[in-house]
Automatic annotation (TrEMBL):
CDD domains: SDR_a5. Gene3D superfamilies: NAD(P)-binding Rossmann-like Domain. Residues 158-182 are annotated as: Disordered. SUPFAM superfamilies: NAD(P)-binding Rossmann-fold domains. PANTHER family: FLAVIN REDUCTASE-RELATED, OS06G0360300 PROTEIN. Transmembrane segments: none annotated. Residues 8-200 form the NAD(P)-binding domain. InterPro entries: NAD(P)-bd_dom (IPR016040), NAD(P)-bd_dom_sf (IPR036291). This is NADH-flavin reductase.
Amino acid sequence: MSLVAVTGASGKTGWRVVDEALKRGLAVRALVRPGSVLPAALAEAEQQGRLDVRRLDLSATEALHAALSGCDSLVIATGARPSVDLAGPLKVDAFGVRDQIRACQAVGLKRVVLVSSLCAGRWQHPLNLFGLILVSKRLGERWLEESGLDWTVVRPGGLSEDDSRSEREGVVYSGPNQQESSSLPRRLVARVCLEALETPAASGRIIEITSSPTQEPQALNQWLEAAIPAPG
């Protein structure tokens, strides 16, 4: 059985990626900061031996290499938290992503899905008032694109904590720089990330996602079959 690593696994999106992966019967290694408190579902899974949890500082190179060794794929769900430190996005969403990319290269982990953000790379956007967060996210994306790894970037819109929406709304997919607003539940983001891992056609693509109650549910591979072929 392949082993999926998830960084930022105690975060609001990351823990849902882990939870959805466990529901699919996947083997999961959750990477969290030493002081993180696991959500109840993950804490229970760890106690039951269904989840491998590694607590480490992602900037600690040797510890990160050890945590990723033996894994077949990685979902990067780390993200800068609101803070008075305006350098936070650069540290987490750019250099922090680069550290994870380098660790993957070092241990031979090839398949990576990065959770980024709608409008990544745009300079004239209100979110950039908080430490140029969208610029930092685009830096992380670019380093992944240039890494030689088998990558997919998922750019979600506004993130909702209402998991019930995931059963009432369908995902609206698009290529890069085509959507500007709208939201979706974090639970749907998690599902799309896992679908991307399992879908060869998602490799080398930036995929933007939001959701709508008027959108018929559609699997990622169905949308990709109808989408414009990737360059090259």
